[in-house]
């Protein structure tokens, strides 16, 4: 029942935006958009008129959609002729999430729904999704609690001489057993992530397509992100940057482990990251301007003498320090240059100040927070501190 | 160097098709398409004129693209004004893979490349990609050999009383340690897969969005496929249907395990699946008609008295018995009703005859094969037979 109320509120919010933009309705086709508004990600289409009851049309599986969805009017996917009767009328303006829907889908819709005008509602959708209900915040908090348990176990399963991919495999295994769904959705068509990034020492210097401070080498040019077959070396920082996914909701965290001893430069950069986190979180309130929080983070980095390696190596520095998370990893808002928008209560944001230290690798922290009048509320409880690991195995 | 030659041949094949369709060039933007033609999946754009040298423009990371790509003319992504000069001319017809590119990308391209006509080349791309070079076949064979090793280890890590997700986690862990990249690409915008489907007993009866014989319950309505938290029960078939990914190339396999004893109905259905595999593979030759191989499979199922539960429960039966695999899991051709196309040498196809047995679950076999004049060449060597597992733990 909680989900039913959730979906009703989400649809009412969408309808309010449709009215404001003078649109006659919205067609929701993309799987995670359908899940958000209808409670199911089966293969189908949700028609949300500007006012009145929504209509859910399901290709596959109707049986399962009936179990899951909170939409009362749920029908098997109709013939093209019937579809024309059911969805809007000629002359109407209909919203689509054009940021993700393929061009071929638009061509199909133009054919079966002639004389409608299709309008991009990506911005509306992303803005609505960025503000979480208490129900959604609890989902992310649950994900954060579960993922924190895996982070706490790293010293139990880390073994000297492991390759990055071995440790990643063990981490992923425990996360899955705790119930993480594994599949991480990203909205940008050119971004992909397989669960997380495990990057040790020099692997952090390999730049990549990923829109973050660090990408990692990955296992091939086809999957060029995350853990590689490089052996984790002693006395170098190891960053474990992972997601967990529960009921579709993603939490995003990073922790630093060091096999052996922590170099003073590494500790200095880490302490600076914690100070950035502290100050940004104190300011993570409704009305704060997203870009100003990035400026705040940058200025702390510069004061600590680390401006040149904040969020990347010189020339490849990312110009952000945080990003929205929810049903997708790359949600709104972004705490970045140019995002001069005010934060809203219960937006959920991963804050990740990180430094690329020449000769050491990547150092930093990442937690997921909810925007609140008292400052950010932490949703990922694991201890922030660097954890040291044995540099060498016990003599056998 | 092998990759450079590969990419040159792929681009020459594309240019030949562009000429045939009287297109002036193609713009390749989608990550896995870029990887296929340029050898890198960094964030950027490949311009392939109808004839002459291609041009690769990279947003991020230029450094990494230079390491990976075989395109000689590789440049940083230009300003919009420069882009207009570099990519085609007004009046020209330019191909795009409209099956996957978002509508918003088309809107952007129309702005920066005015007066060009954009034409869908999805079919050309999918057909080119369906036929593998010997280099590509070897990639899939390697994936098949590695994944076969994980299948062989299942009796070592299976424990009575495990939940589906526990066994899935252990399977995935070993596959990752052997080097599987994990991230499985699918082309259809409404399909998703997290590594594989592990489905025991009654979990097979849960229908779902997934375009296959079986979907599994998954962990939530947001990720409604694959392993669930259900405990694996004795005397019921357990289907382990998994992919492995190496250098982006996917292999697809299924095996049946039974904790305890094999019911005669399960054995009968399994033997029928093997017979379907045997006959379809014998016919997997250039020139064979894809839909006729599905008909052949269906008729063997019907003769064995299993027509009603072939590839799904009545009313939700999938109308295919095999699908192309390569850089994506849902490649061409499909051995399905309506696909009246001849097979081509070195198309790589996963053949997966499966039965949904009332009261038991799913039973069948899946291997990946290359089309060959002598009949299908096996790329996934693991033993086909059902493996029995202990029904109960050793008394302690």
Automatic annotation (TrEMBL), chains A, B:
Alphabetical list of Pfam families matching this protein: Creatinase_N, Peptidase_M24
Transcription regulation in keyword set: no
Keyword Nucleus: no
Every Peptidase M24 domain range: 138-372
Record-annotated Creatinase N-terminal domain positions: 10-131
Gene3D superfamilies reported in the protein's UniProt record: Creatinase/methionine aminopeptidase superfamily, Creatinase/prolidase N-terminal domain
CDD domains: APP_MetAP (cd01066)
Protein keywords: Aminopeptidase, Hydrolase, Protease
InterPro entries in the cross-refs: Creatin/AminoP/Spt16_N, Creatinase/aminopeptidase-like, Creatinase_N, Pept_M24, Peptidase_M24B
Domain of life according to the entry: Bacteria
Gene Ontology molecular functions: aminopeptidase activity
Protein name: Xaa-Pro aminopeptidase
């Amino acid at each position: 029942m909680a989900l039913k109320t959730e979906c009703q509120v989400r649809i009412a919010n969408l309808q309010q935006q449709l009215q404001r933009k003078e649109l006659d309705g919205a067609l929701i086709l993309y799987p995670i958009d359908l899940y958000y508004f209808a409670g199911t990600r089966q293969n189908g289409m949700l028609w949300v008129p500007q006012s009145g009851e929504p209509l859910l049309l399901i290709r596959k599986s109707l049986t399962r959609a009936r179990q899951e969805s909170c939409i009362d009017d749920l029908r098997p996917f109709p013939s093209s002729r019937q579809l024309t009767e059911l969805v809007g009328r000629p002359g109407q303006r209909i919203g689509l999430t054009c940021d993700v829907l393929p061009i071929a889908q638009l061509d199909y819709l133009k054919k079966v729904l002639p004389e409608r005008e299709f309008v991009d509602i990506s911005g509306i959708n992303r803005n609505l999704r960025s503000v979480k209900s208490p129900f959604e915040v609890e989902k992310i908090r649950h994900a954060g609690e579960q993922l924190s348990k895996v982070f706490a176990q790293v010293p139990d399963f880390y073994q000297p001489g492991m390759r990055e991919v071995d440790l990643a495999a063990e981490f992923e295994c425990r996360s899955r057993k705790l119930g993480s769904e594994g599949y991480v959705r990203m909205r940008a068509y050119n971004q992909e992530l397989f669960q997380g990034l495990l990057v040790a020492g020099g692997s952090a210097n390999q730049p990549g397509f990923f829109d973050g401070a660090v990408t990692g080498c990955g296992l091939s040019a086809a999957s060029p992100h995350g853990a590689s077959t490089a052996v984790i070396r002693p006395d170098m920082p190891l960053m474990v940057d992972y997601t967990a996914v529960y009921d579709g909701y993603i939490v995003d965290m990073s922790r630093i482990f060091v096999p052996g001893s922590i170099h003073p430069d590494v500790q200095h950069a880490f302490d600076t990251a914690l100070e950035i986190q502290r100050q940004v979180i104190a300011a993570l309130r409704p009305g704060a301007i997203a870009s100003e929080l990035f400026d705040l983070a940058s200025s702390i980095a510069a004061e600590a003498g680390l401006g040149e390696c904040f969020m990347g190596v010189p020339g490849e520095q990312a110009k952000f320090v945080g990003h929205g998370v929810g049903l997708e990893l790359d949600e709104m808002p972004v705490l970045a240059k140019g995002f001069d928008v005010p934060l809203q209560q219960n937006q959920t944001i991963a804050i990740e100040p990180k430094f690329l230290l020449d000769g050491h690798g990547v150092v930093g922290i990442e937690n997921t927070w909810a925007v609140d009048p008292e400052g950010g509320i932490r949703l990922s409880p694991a201890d922030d501190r660097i954890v040291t690991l044995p540099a060498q195995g016990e003599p056998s």
